[in-house]
Input
Amino acid sequence: SQQGEEDPQALSIQEGENATMNCSYKTSINNLQWYRQNSGRGLVHLILIRSNEREKHSGRLRVTLDTSKKSSSLLITASRAADTASYFCATDGGGYNKLIFGAGTRLAVHP
Amino acid sequence: EAGVAQSPRYKIIEKRQSVAFWCNPISGHATLYWYQQILGQGPKLLIQFQNNGVVDDSQLPKDRFSAERLKGVDSTLKIQPAKLEDSAVYLCASSAGQFVSGGYTFGSGTRLTVV
Output
């Protein structure tokens, strides 16, 4: 079963615009992570946010976490064509070192 | 540091045949995972090893899938016999621990096509 559900399933924007993806999950967590996957490739870790954190930044990425709503969002600012990929949230489901992924958001950034 | 190595990169087999995938995790990473990713879906955890012991294999179809991690390093995932619905990318990942800011490191995966 999948813990996280991303929204929207697909997102199409122009270069320079911001992209926001949301993730909802079902059970309590210790941390939530976001990953990127380019077509035909493995997943690349982007950012990890712990359950006691509310916001985290990494370059053009901003992640927020609302544990009361069991939701997180990933914001990519000033998007580039190279940001075109699928983005997945993943949680540990409160368990021991186990990562459960959502279905992902497919982002297309047009030049 | 070297990444997670997986082989082969691609594999095409006929249904009812057997296939094996190999994974070499990052040196020193105690935890190793095998995920199955069907096209258009998120990765689904098949099995998790801690050193050479199985932590979670609840979603592993044990009638046809098997995995081992001898000596707590390399791992092999086997499917025998394969079904059409096993067509997917099989991803291996490793981790040093739960609260590591770098997250989990994934290999490039093995794309399996069952015809």
